[in-house]
Amino acid sequence: MSIEAIDLSFTYGERMILDHVSFLIPDHSITTVLGPNGAGKTTLLKVLLGFEKMDGGHVRYDGKNLHELVQKEFWKNVGYVPQAKQSIFPLTVEETVLTGRTGNLSMFEKPGKDDFSICEQAMHKAGIFHLKDRNCSTLSGGELQLVHIARALAARPRILVLDEPETGLDFENQLMVLELLKQLNEEDGMTVVYNTHYPDHAIDFSTHTILFMGEGKIIYGPHEQILTKKNMEHAFHVSVEIFRGKRHAVIPVGKE
Predict the structure, then answer these.
(1) What is the pLDDT of residues 28-74, one digit of tens each?
(2) Rounded CA gap, 204 and 249, in Å?
(3) Buried/exposed code over 144-158 (b: 16+ C-beta within 10 A; e: otherwise)
(4) What predicted TM-score, i.e. pTM, was given to this entire model?
């Protein structure tokens, strides 16, 4: 499932966040949204999902305008994982993942055998089935992030949109989450879109990148064309060095 943004504009107060930006996120791709704090990464995701009303332009999913799509059908195809926060509800992992089936049920319909089976598959996919009876309030940050992803997968979406899925996690849990996203893309053909603070993650785990360049402008394309030393120095206002290998590293070395 593809996402196309056409001439998008969005302002917050007097500040221009998106200034007539256009791009096409291809089907079966992994696209990262990258930029400094406050650039508008989360806002862009919210505009693409219809949570924020754009000032101008259009968003299309497989060629169909967002505002013309039936919401129930839309959320069957699109999974959203917000920034992870510690759970305050006394739900088990299985109960939490099961809430991801809500959009597939009628108003008073209870989950059935098939719904529990789908949730079991989602937990296995996310590698958390062994935690299914644990209370979510007892989980680590990385475990809880995987629960949120499994919950989104329970709806069986074609697109997965995530807001900073690896932020606040240690190195092991960051890689665990990112490897899962790569697996979902490669094995299930899922389109994945997520924003991040880490340029090296964008290089290692994405096929395309949206890079905020300031003043509401972005550039978009295959990551090897977008994530150059020149572009990243312009976007982040620091000098950087890029080290390429089995894993890439982007190191800030000083102010411009």
Answers:
(1) 999 999 998 889 999 999 999 999 999 999 999 999 999 888 888 89
(2) 9
(3) bbbbbbbbbbbbbbb
(4) 0.90
CB-based contacts of 63: which residues, under 8 Å, 6+ apart? 2, 4
